[in-house]
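STRUCTURE:
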């Protein structure tokens, strides 16, 4: 008599699990029979977009992956790894937790932080810093305020408890994110390159352990949930949202670091999306072996869990470890010391089949290679089509916009706009000091900079993307995202090294959404090649849209760029703050009569239809090379890039830390509003002491890069063309308090 555990699945069950009818037929062909329900559930998560990248891998393979510092390339391990010299490597990665955060913002964001840190320490790297990139809807909406509060608290509580500083990030508000927020978490860690832990299973007969927390029903089918729309019924998917425990993760980190010092480990992988299923299949396929896994040996939090529930659970703080046979006691002793589960649940086998057993009964028997990215998982080339709005946006003409008479009022409106105002309300809930490595807590800088103790080096890191630019022009907007990340690293005194990306887009089956994705890949490739910053990995998050009354409303496309760079000499750390009254203020790079896609145009004038701001990749690169030279030669004492809000906001942000002011003159050939608030790219503001002026001018003339003297630093007044724009103290008060007031009211 056929066991109910082995009963053949139906097409209806397969489609309910998220598989296409054609995919169900493919599975039958791969395994030579109709799968049972458990096997079908395994394929449904492994072939989901979240795990297989079936709708994106064709284009992702076109991204540049080679660079001078690469130790581990994209897709080879849990995270990318770059050489930072002295036998050390930096592992770093960014991932999304968008869909869980839309339903349960606190746990959704918290477990995103937990998951990305596990990706780092499963490689043997101790996390040293975190960043996050957040997108929310209209700040006036009650639901947006609820989401902001929940996400920020979730990130803060988990990160603070886990003990890793959050050294930077970004927050952006737009109506397109009203239902579907974006929560992208970045983590970086340092390791001895001799102790890199692989994510490959090897050695027939080697035991397989599950370590960490017990397995529960939280997060079941979370990978499949992340591969579908957010709708009015999505609240029913709350079981797909995981629950995190940062204190358990801290124990897991310390146990893993101790284990990494032994010779007991063959391979290890975090149980993130798709849980035991993903880690067992991916580790087996990567090592060209199989596994026998006994699900009844898995420590569970609930009784009578079904095989598919154990396999698909995304309970947090768990990892799968393949151990050298004979070293089992080493693993058990370490995890017993840290009061964590370490249960032997299986064995590495020959032949590439992953077999799952429950109480001695075979409930799944599948070829690992058929389940994984780059193996047998389907790959689709989706149709893409330029949307009509793209050409409409290009028709924008600055002459159709009347310049306001009172530009001081515009300046203060921008200072309090949630996309520009200080994110103090957010970052004060994060601990940036824990670990004592952060170098930019009290010295404001364009990037987060973390000290590498015992060396003269530091690592700079940033996350960047202006979603409005990418919506206006995906290819140019993504080139700008990479370039701004590089610019922030450069202005901090670093050398851009490599990137990780988090690609947040709408439905891949929508040709216009997919066109945005394809454009972003093309733009990212061009900029990464120019800056020699290869892509080390990341993730793709499709289906970021709302479906209301049958109409699909995608979010602004957001290819978030996480970049790291090296400061070979910590003395080259460059901060953005004005240092003293009388210093000369210069702008490096060419200003243009351009207000396209600026916050000024979008929020003050309410004009959404305009192209991306002025951008030229060659000019951008030349400006950054020049800034590096100026920092290296000690010819400037502050540097800050011109970005959101334009030149005025850049100057105000430089003035606020020491409450100094500025007196500048605008360019008579450019409209004053464009000069002050336009967001044309490739510009950096620097300050120069009178003693440095001659050497600075000589170096700039030799560079061939455009530069202009704007004016000088004042004691506290903000002056533009002899017009008093107020005192920096009042600007600082508005800037610092605006976001908190708008969220709390």
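SEQUENCE:
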């Amino acid at each position: 008599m056929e066991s109910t555990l082995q009963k053949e699945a139906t097409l209806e069950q397969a489609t309910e699990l998220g598989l296409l009818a054609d995919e169900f037929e493919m599975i039958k062909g791969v395994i030579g029979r109709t799968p049972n329900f458990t096997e079908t559930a395994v394929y449904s998560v492994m072939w989901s977009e979240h795990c297989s990248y079936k709708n994106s891998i064709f284009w992702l393979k076109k991204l540049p992956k080679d660079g001078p510092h690469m130790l581990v390339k994209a897709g080879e391990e849990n995270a990318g790894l770059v050489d930072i010299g002295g036998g050390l490597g930096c592992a770093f990665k960014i991932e999304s937790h968008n869909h869980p955060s839309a339903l349960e913002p606190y746990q959704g964001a918290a477990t995103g932080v937990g998951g990305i840190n596990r990706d780092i320490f499963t490689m043997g790297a101790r996390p040293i810093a975190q960043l996050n990139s957040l997108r929310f809807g209209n700040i006036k909406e009650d639901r947006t305020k609820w989401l902001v509060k929940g996400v920020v608290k979730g990130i803060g509580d988990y990160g603070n408890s886990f003990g890793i500083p959050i050294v930077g990030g970004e927050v952006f508000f737009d109506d397109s994110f009203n239902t579907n927020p974006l929560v992208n978490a970045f983590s970086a860690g340092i390791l001895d390159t001799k102790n890199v832990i692989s994510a490959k299973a090897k050695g027939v007969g080697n035991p397989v352990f599950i370590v960490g927390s017990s397995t529960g029903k939280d997060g079941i089918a979370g990978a499949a949930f992340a591969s579908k729309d957010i709708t009015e019924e999505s609240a029913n998917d709350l079981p797909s949202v995981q629950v995190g425990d940062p204190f358990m993760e801290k124990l897991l980190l310390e146990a893993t670091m101790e284990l990494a010092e032994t010779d007991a480990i063959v391979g290890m992988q975090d149980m993130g999306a798709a849980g035991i299923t993903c880690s067992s299949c991916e580790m087996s396929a990567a090592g060209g072996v199989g596994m026998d896994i006994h699900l009844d040996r898995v420590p569970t939090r609930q009784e009578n869990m079904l095989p598919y529930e154990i396999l698909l659970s995304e309970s947090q703080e768990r990892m799968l470890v393949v151990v050298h046979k004979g070293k089992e006691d080493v693993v058990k002793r370490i995890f017993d010391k840290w009061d964590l589960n370490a249960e032997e649940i299986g064995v590495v086998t020959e032949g590439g089949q992953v077999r799952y057993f429950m109480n001695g009964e075979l409930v799944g028997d599948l070829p690992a290679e058929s389940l994984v990215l780059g193996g047998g998982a389907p790959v689709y080339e989706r149709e893409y089509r330029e949307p009509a709005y793209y050409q409409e946006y290009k028709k924008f003409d600055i002459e159709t916009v009347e310049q306001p008479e009172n530009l001081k009022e515009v300046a203060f409106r921008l200072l309090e706009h949630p996309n520009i105002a200080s994110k103090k309300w957010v970052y004060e809930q994060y601990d940036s000091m824990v670990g004592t490595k952060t170098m930019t807590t009290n010295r404001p800088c364009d990037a987060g900079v973390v000290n590498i103790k015992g060396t003269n080096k530091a690592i700079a890191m940033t996350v960047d993307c202006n979603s409005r630019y990418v919506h206006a022009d995906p290819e140019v907007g993504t080139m700008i995202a990479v370039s701004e990340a590089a610019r922030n690293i450069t202005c901090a005194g670093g050398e851009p090294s490599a990137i990780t990306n988090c690609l947040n887009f709408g439905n891949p089956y929508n040709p216009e959404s997919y066109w945005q994705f394809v454009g972003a890949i093309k733009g990212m490739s061009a900029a990464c090649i120019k800056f020699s910053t290869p892509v080390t990995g990341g993730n793709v998050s499709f289906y970021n849209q709302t479906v209301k009354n049958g109409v699909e409303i995608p979010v602004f496309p957001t290819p978030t760029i996480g970049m790291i760079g090296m400061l070979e000499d910590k003395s080259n750390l460059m901060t953005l703050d004005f240092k003293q009254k009388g210093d000369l203020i210069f702008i490096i790079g060419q200003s243009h009569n351009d207000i396209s896609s600026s916050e000024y145009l979008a929020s003050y004038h309410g004009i959404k239809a305009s192209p991306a701001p002025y951008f030229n990749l060659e000019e951008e690169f030349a400006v950054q090379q020049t800034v590096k030279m100026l920092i290296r030669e000690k010819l400037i004492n502050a540097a800050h890039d011109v970005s959101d809000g334009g030149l005025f906001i850049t100057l105000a942000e430089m003035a606020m830390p020491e409450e100094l002011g500025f007196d500048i003159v605008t360019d008579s050939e450019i409209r004053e509003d464009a000069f002050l608030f336009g967001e044309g790219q490739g510009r950096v503001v620097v300050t120069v002491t009178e003693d440095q002026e001659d050497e600075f001018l000589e170096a700039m003339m030799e560079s061939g890069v455009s530069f202009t003297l704007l004016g000088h630093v004042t004691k506290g007044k903000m002056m533009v063309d002899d017009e008093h724009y107020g005192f920096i103290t009042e600007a600082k008060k508005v800037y610092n308090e605006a976001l908190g007031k708008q969220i709390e009211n």
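REMARK: The chain has a mean pLDDT of 92.
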